[in-house]
Amino acid sequence: MYPFLRLFWQLFITRNLPRLPLTGTHVSHHFCMPWDIDLWRELNNGRTLTIYDLGRIPLAGRVGLISALRRNRWGLAIAGASVRYRRRIRMFEKIEMRSRAVFWDERFFYIEQSMWKANGDCANHIIYRAAVTGREGIMVPDDVMATMENQEAAPEAPEWVAAWIKADTLRPWPPMQDAQE
Questions:
Q1: Segments in the chain forming alpha helices (H)
Q2: 149 pLDDT tier (thresholds 50, 70, 90)
Q3: Is 71 in a helix, a strand, or coil?
Q4: Which of 87, 97, 102, 174 yields a CA-CA distance of 20 to 30 A from 151?
Q5: Which segments of 11-165 are extended strands (E)?
Q6: How crowded is residue 54: how many other Cβ atoms within 10 Å of its Cβ?
Q7: pLDDT tens, 77-121?
Q8: Which InterPro entries does the entry link to (predicted)?
Q9: Contact present, 103 and 54 (Cβ < 8 Å)
Q10: What are the extents of the domains in the chain?
Q11: Which residues, 6+ apart, have CB-to-CB distance to 100 below 8 Å?
């Protein structure tokens, strides 16, 4: 089940925090709960993606995106992700999550998030490609930012993000056309 209560709690505790620039870092704290673990008694890899929502959605609120989405009846869609898992997160372990936008282009926003253990180790890291969607399809990030009254210029894509974007364009779509049945 989706962690609605945890999400509402995060939105509640962040409601009065200062607004962030689009590339600002939102820091949040979370616990790995019993319903988040897998057979190996660690944070389930799929649940990791869901828990990342608990940092990404409050980040969207703090940069002014949630208000723009509501005003314009837009949606927010994840169009791709790449995760790197490095350290196990065990039940009841507290983690610090860091969330920020790192780049945007003519179609997408690229959001970076990471989970950090109490000992300072990075447990996992993800890059998302996110799109704001409206009735016409994907909204141009510059138009979204104008609605948010944000004049920030897009930063240069970090080399690793640019490489991921390029690599993803090489993936065939639709996939597995050559698969034998």
A1: 4-14, 45-62, 65-72, 141-147, 159-170
A2: confident
A3: helix
A4: 97
A5: 26-31, 75-85, 94-104, 109-117, 122-134, 137-138
A6: 19
A7: 999 999 999 999 999 999 999 999 999 999 999 999 999 999 999
A8: HotDog_dom_sf, THEM6_lcsJ_thioesterase
A9: no
A10: 4-8+23-170
A11: 23, 24, 25, 26, 59, 111, 112, 113
